[in-house]
Amino acid sequence: MSAGGPKPVIHVAACALLDPDGRILIARRPEGKPMAGLWEFPGGKIEPGETPEQTVVRELREELGVEPCERCLHPFAFVSHPYETFHIVMPLFLCRTWDGFARPLEGQEIAWVRKEKLGEYRLSPADRSLAAEIRDRL
Ligand SMILES: Nc1nc2c([nH]c(=O)n2[C@@H]2O[C@H](COP(=O)(O)OP(=O)(O)OP(=O)(O)O)[C@@H](O)[C@H]2O)c(=O)[nH]1
């Protein structure tokens, strides 16, 4: 692709798990992955044929071993953000109910964070406006 040419648009779906104490789960991208070390909401790329809800259910299972029901996923916000080599479009769901105990299954670090403290973590650039939305609207 030539510099300044069109960038691929990547469709991702992510979820903020919210516990009864009002804390939100974020995960730190492990070494070896692009944007390693930055904190994000659990989720991943939407595979062909998947709905964003199905992506979130699959990724939460793979990454954290938790099982939300699809109807527990509430659309909260979305981002459309230009990165250097791609453009990300990502809905963020909110989930307060799930089965299982969230644990890091893919070598990632996880943290349960109060909404006021999200800004203290080094978030992926696309997620910074989402953290502000959570702080203001939740
Ligand atoms: N999961 C997730 N990805 C995000 C967020 N914000 C953000 O910019 N991204 C970016 O969106 C892309 C999603 O890729 P991913 O690596 O999580 O997805 P995946 O597990 O399906 O991909 P892989 O199997 O290729 O590793 C990455 O470039 C990631 O940095 C977020 O809050 N959650």
Explain what you see.
This protein has about 140 residues and is of the alpha+beta class. Helix content is about 15%, strand content about 35%. The strands form three sheets. It has a four-stranded mixed sheet, with helices on both faces. A three-stranded antiparallel sheet has the order 3-2-9, with no helix packed on it. It is globular and about 45 Å long. Bound molecules: 8-OXO-guanosine-5'-triphosphate (8GT). 8-OXO-guanosine-5'-triphosphate (8GT) binds next to strand 1, strand 4 and strand 7.
Proportion of strand residues: 25-35%
- Give helix % range: 10-25%
**N→C terminal distance:** 40 Å
Oligomer status? single chain
Rounded to the nearest angstrom, the radius of gyration is 15 Å
Which spans have pLDDT < 50 for at least 5 consecutive residues?
none
Number of strands: 9
Global morphology: globular
Structural class per helix/strand content? Answer: alpha+beta
Mean of residue pLDDT values: 95
Largest sheet: 4 strands, mixed
Order of helices and strands: EEEEHEEEEEH
How many helices? The count is 2
* Distinct small-molecule ligands in the complex: 8-OXO-guanosine-5'-triphosphate
